[in-house]
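3.2 Worked example (two chains)
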Amino acid sequence: MVISTTGFARFAYGVLMPFMQADLNMNYTQAGLLATTISLGFLAISPLAGLLALKFGMKQVIMAGGFLVTVSFLFLSFSNSFCLYMLIMFFCGAGSALAFSPIMSLLVIQFQEKKGLVLGVLLSGVGSGMLLSGLITTYLIRYFPVWEWRAIWLIFSITSILFTLLSWIVLKEPGKSATNKDDRNQGVAHAYKNRKILRVGIIYFLIGSAYLIPILFQTSFMIHSGISERVAGSLFSISGLFTILGGPIWGIVSDKVGRKKSLLVALALCVMGGIIPVVNDHIISFIASAILFGFSIGGLMVLVQAMAVERSLPYLVPAVLGFITISFATGQLVGPFLAGLIIEHLGGGREAYVFAIFIFFTALILTCFVREKEKVVLETKNTNNVKGNG
């Protein structure tokens, strides 16, 4: 479900954009506007996803997101109007938001002792979706000389409906909490005003602002430094593979040693990944940077979400994850825009990397103020207390 509703729904357009742009005679402004519309749909619906999950159940909202993404893919296969594409892309981002937070919430509630591992495996689906969308487009589009990119969206639609139906069979709604409706409504408001959650949300905003900068500008930085486009593209793929591996590994590690310690190390590695090519733009520096960034970025979302989950009651998890996801999505809009301005007025990728280093370091400093005793300690029927890592 994460592969289809996030990997395909939010990132496949980047691979298919050149084909769509040529066929539909779109300029770069229009092509970029479609990408922005996906993010706007995700950002607009993210705060509602958690509240809807509390009201109607997590599984129902996940299914709604899956079907909405499926229908969006289908319409992308047959439409010709740019205005209609704008609307479809918004619903594609909205469907992604409906599925994203509730599916994380549903599984971390059911696997209390392995939150990090569960989130790591789920979020590796984002990188897997990006990798698969690239492979499917590269190797299958040649077999559809008439339909071309439209056939790829149709393949994504078929895949998405299969994943959604399978999820309907496999996923189980957690047991209902005994908390009454009024207490839940007060609890949601309290969660949004809680300084512990707000601090995690600010950290997530900073990560969202910084992590796309090396992803977007790594290739141009390398080419500007005299490295060939082929080598730059290969390093981008290597970074993507390490992103997929990073999620589960950081999740397992954080289950053992704690979220705070793991997040501090991951952010420190991101700072190092930015400093190395800034100091020396040799190919070896870029290889080290790609590995460090890929591996660390793959764990940042896992660690922050697990940290937020441990600071909220189980029935508030969907609302809390939806809330911090707003911070993350806002950062995704702000960071690359500011980096683009810096490049335009100050010179190149090196300056953008310095900007990313500053943001990652700020997030690291803020993480130092997170306290382990902030965690909510739960009681269950089988144990007197459930220990969590800080």
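3.2.1 Second chain
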Amino acid sequence: MRYRRCSLLMMQVKEDRGLDLQAVLQGRAELQTTLAWQAVAGHLDAPVVLSEEEVIALGRMAHDAWSEADAYDGCSEVLSGLIAKGLVISDEESAATFRDADARVRALNGWPLTALAHRAGRWRGVDSAHEMRSNNLVTAVELHGRYGPPPAAVSHHEGTPIPLPVAADEDFDELMSRRVTCRNFDPDRALPLQTAARILKRTIMAHAVIQPAPDMQILKKNIPSGGGLHPLETYAVVRNVEGLENGIHHYDPVSHALRRLADQPDDLDGRVRLMLAGQEWFVDAALHLIQVARFSRNFWKYRSHPKAYRAILLDAGHLSQQLAISATLEGVASYVTAAINEFDIEDTLKLDGIASSPVMMCGIGWRAQHLTTTEFDPAERIWNNGRQHR
């Protein structure tokens, strides 16, 4: 058997606090702090607890060269344990799952810290709305009561301010002022197909395709992208769009077409709520758009680059604002959120979570006539005493 350390690995000390049982037996209530080594690997879905022996052993192994097991001068039980945990990669058939996942990480050419950050930051089955309500962290007043005042909205700088001219509002200023994130969608009003198609055209459709080589395409869209790579892939969850069958589709920006996936959830709204981490105020949108980062496309150019992952997140920001403005122009509402259950989306879309993984969800639909969930509309451009402006 041959072995080597996995390609991306970070060690951290995990600190847990709990009641000191020995002190409790003696009639005292005291906290006890427990320290333990924890490993986060680029190909594993969860951290792994390690012994000090295992930490030392990992520090003696190379990740880029195979070693023979009979040459390992440590304890064979430690080596076997690390193979079972997936932190040491073996060429044995029983370790094929870990080996294949690690091979995909190696082929990705990602910068280790950002690759680990994305993997470790994914959620599964989180109900963020329930947690906010349970901890009284829904309103600004509740947040202030728990955490105190936030940092100042604008940082202070010495010096004499130089007033700038304020231009008169134009049509675009009026459009921008009506861009308000929607938390109250009409669940029953269908979105016209032409409206949805125009928003996709202005947001994520490819308006030109450049082919520098027979097996290479560069897309021109209406949004900027780091290196012109456009690594975000869109999956459309159709909930109520005229002329389209409800379900999950893949959007092709080159042909401007949807392809319905073969496997569909039995309860579409329930699956959307799960993917949205319990944010039920977004579920009723007529069309949800899942933005999946294809890391392999971005890292093809930016190999092991410390800014590559940041560029992907900037791409997502550009896309969400373009979507919001395009929706507002059409008179419909929109939302965007990064609070998503990545694991559950990956399971739904059959993504490996390594080369492809979601970074945000957004959506469009008609706004409800009555305000049920609070929306941030301080200028009152949308709502008037809980009812939409006419």
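3.3 Remarks
Residues 2-108 form one domain.
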